[in-house]
Every structure is written in structure tokens, then in C-alpha cells.
Amino acid sequence: MQIYELGYLILPSVAEDALPGVTEKMKDAISKAGGSIVDSEAPFEQALAYNMSKTIGASRYVVSDAYIGWIKFDSEPAKVESLKDELRKMNELLRYLLVKAPKETSFTFAKARAALEEKEEKELPPTPAEEVMIK
Amino acid sequence: MISLSKNDYIDYKDVETLKKFLTPHARIQSSQRSGVPSKSQRQLALAIKRARYMGLLPYVSR
User: Fold this and answer.
1) What is the pLDDT of residue B5?
2) B9, B12, B58 ranked by CB distance to A49: nearest
3) How far apart are CA A23 and CA A17, in angstroms?
4) Interchain proximity A7–B12, CB inside 8 Å
5) Alpha-carbon span B14 to A29, nearest angstrom
6) What domains does chain A contain, in order, with CATH numbers?
7) CB nearest B55 (choices: A9, A102, A106)
8) Domains in chain B with CATH codes
9) B53 interaction partners in chain A (CB closer than 8 Å)
């Protein structure tokens, strides 16, 4: 068995409340391919570093932001190819990235955001109101 | 200089760390400049390329 991580981008045209359905669809595809889910992070909207396009049928969509999330799972290396085929058929997905990953989750977007906010807070000098409160 | 341990897993999603190893033009810094171990440099380059594909980092920047 090998631990894999599936990073994905969902089109921004998908409604916010339809996102759990899309992730559920991906998780179903994983379990259908013989994988068991280890860890995951719910998708959230993020600006992309550059514009991407997705062609569905005859129409081409150019997007500058997308929902990003990831799922970590345990699977047989031989069965992963069939999962890729399933994912390619999903029209809601802008892109996906399937890579080998370590078992322990050392990074999550939520943790990174918290660390970044903390750093910004430290750098900013305390506002006058806060100083009064300290005294 | 930014230090990176040989045993650390370099995650492609960790944009804040990866950004430190890019030049102002968003190119990958050479190992001479970054000063990280060769093994880490290879993992770093792979992580940056993955982050680019996922739209977390730009391919080019002026």
C-alpha cells in the first residue's frame, strides 16, 4: 500500500453549498478504486497565480480563481490509474494533482493561514486602544 | 540564508516556504544561491513545479 495525496481545483462556477457533493463524489471514486481515506481538507476559494482554462464540450471557460482542497488516501499503486480516469470525467474539476505523500500531515492550509495571521499581528505595532488596555 | 533540513518533507502546498526560494522573476533559485543540501534542492524544485501546476505559484512574474 502507498499513501497518495490528491490535490484538486474545483471550478468557481460551482455553488458554495454544492462543494461537499463534489468532494463526496471524489471520495466515492477513491473508495471505488480500493482506496481508504486517511485525511482531507475541505475546499476553499482562492485566487490563482495565473489564469487557467477548462474546456467542457464546445465551450471554453477561463478562470482566475478556484476552490482548492486535498484528500490523502491509502491505495494499491496498480489501482490508481483507474481513479485518474474517473477524475478526468468530472466536469467540476479544473485540475487535479495525484502524488505520493508521507503518512503524517505536516501541512494544512488552515494551519498556514493561522501562522501567517499571527506573524502579521506581531509585526504590527499595538494600536493605541490596546496599549490603554494593557496599562 | 534560509535553512532546510534534509529530513523535512517539502509540501507543494506550503507556498510561504516555497516563495523564499524563488527569484524576483519567480524562477527557481540556483542551489548556489539557496544554499540548501542537494537532496533538498531537488525536492524543492519538484514542489515548486507542482505548486505552479496547481496555480499556487506563478510560472513567470515581471
Assistant:
1) 73
2) B58
3) 11
4) yes
5) 26
6) 2-105 (3.30.70.60)
7) A9
8) 1-62 (4.10.640.10)
9) 95, 97
Confidence class for position B54, pLDDT limits 50, 70, 90? very high
Count other Cβ atoms within 10 Å, centred on residue B46. 13
B6 confidence band (pLDDT: 50, 70, 90): confident
Can you tell me the ipTM of this complex? Answer: 0.83
The predicted model scores a pTM of 0.85
Question: Which residue in chain B has the smallest CA separation from A113?
Answer: B16
The 10s digit of each residue's pLDDT in A104-132 is 888 899 998 898 888 888 877 666 665 55
Taking CB atoms and an 8 Å limit, are B57 and A112 in contact across chains?
no
Contact A9 B16 (CB under 8 A): no
CA dihedral sign of residues B54, A52, A109, A8:
negative
